[in-house]
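Morning F.,

Quick status update on the modeling queue. The single chain you submitted on Monday has been processed. Sequence for confirmation:
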Amino acid sequence: MTRSSFQFGNFLKEDNQTIYPFTAVPLHYNHQQIERIEQIMGDLIRYIAKTQAKTSKNESHLAEMESRLNHFNTQYIYLSEQYAVLQQRLTILENK
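Structure tokens below.
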């Protein structure tokens, strides 16, 4: 397949053995279409930035919750051990 066999042969880029169609902007786009494409791309970039900010915020909250969970687990283990000690003391006192 050669470059001339494509309909848009003038707009193809050849890299080694691979041909990539539509790598250049066709000349038939008018100024309004280009502005619209730029506007849509800007909207997409803003959307991606907002989504990334939300993701970062959610990841931060998740890390905070995991930290709290680890703290509560540590407290639970400590309190369980203290409860066992108190139960033993109570049993000793009841047997006297």
